[in-house]
C-alpha cells in the first residue's frame, strides 16, 4: 500500500538558516503530494501541493519538487524565521479520489531560534 | 479558511463514560474524516465518510463509532472511553476534486481519567 516516510525530528535551526525536510514515498501510479504545517495548538494547514512529476509547489517561501525518479518531495526554505517553528507533515493522495484518504508521514518538528 | 468547527474543543471525562465529538462544516464537501494525533504516531485515521450515512473504518477504528445523518455534521462516539483514547482529535473535509486536498478543523483535546 501507499506510504510516506519523512525525516525524524526535532530539527533545530538558527534564524535565516536553510531548511530541508526530507520526504519519500512508496506508491503505485501517480499520486498527488502535499506538505501540511501545524502551528502550536492548531489544526493542520495545507502549505503546498504538486500533482505530477517535476511539478514544484511553493508557498510562503517554502518549495518542494515532485521527483518521481527518486520518489521524493523534499521541503525546502532558503531562510527560516522564528515564526516557521511548527510541525510539518508530508502526505500522499490520489487525484479525484476522496474515497481514498490522504496518507500522512509522522511529522517533523521544526524549532527556529533567534 | 475552510469552514470547519469542532466541539467541544476541550473535554475531560472519566473511564467508562460515553463521549461524542462533533465536526461541523459549511463547505458542503462530500468527504469527512476523523483522525487522532498522538506523540510518536503522527496522524492516524479513525473513520471516514463519503456521503450521508456512508462511512468506513480507518486504521484505528476499534472503540470508536461514527454517524453522518447530514452532509454538514460528522459525529465521533467513544462508547466507553478508556485512558488510551486520551488524544487530540482532528476532523478533516475534502471535496474529492482533482487535488483531493483535505482541510482540517482546530481539534478537540480529550483527556480520559
- Overall form of chain B: globular
Mass-distribution shape of chain A: globular
* Oligomer classification: heterodimer
Beta content of chain B comes to: over 45%
Listing every helix as H and every strand as E from the N terminus to the C terminus, the arrangement of chain B reads EEEEEEEEEEE
Which chain pair has the greatest contact? A-B, 25 and 28 residues
Which percent band covers the strand fraction of chain A? over 45%
Helices and strands of chain A, in order, run as EEEEEEEEEEEE
Most strands sheet of chain B: 7 strands, mixed
Main β-sheet description of chain A:
6 strands, mixed
Low-confidence spans of chain B: pLDDT under 50, at least 5 residues? none
Number of helices in the DSSP assignment of chain B:
0
> How far apart are the first and last residues' alpha carbons of chain A, in Å?
41 Å
Integer-rounded radius of gyration of chain A = 14 Å
User: What structural class do the secondary elements of chain A suggest?
Assistant: mainly beta
Helicity range of chain B: under 10%
Notes on the structure:
Chain A has 114 residues and is mostly beta strands. In chain A, 0% of the residues lie in helices and 49% in strands. Chain A is built from no helices and twelve strands. In chain A, strands 2, 5, 6, 10, 11 and 12 form a six-stranded mixed beta sheet that branches. In chain A, strands 3-9-8-7 form a four-stranded antiparallel beta sheet, with no helix packed on it. In chain A, strands 1-4 form a two-stranded antiparallel sheet. In chain A, strand 7 and strand 8 form a beta hairpin. The termini of chain A are far apart. The mean pLDDT of chain A is 92. By secondary structure, chain B is mainly β. Helices cover 0% and strands 58% of the residues of chain B. Chain B is built from no helices and eleven strands. In chain B, strands 2, 4, 5, 6, 9, 10 and 11 form a seven-stranded mixed beta sheet that branches. In chain B, strands 1-3-8-7 form a four-stranded antiparallel beta sheet, with no helix packed on it. In chain B, strand 5 and strand 6 form a beta hairpin. Chain B is globular and about 40 Å long.
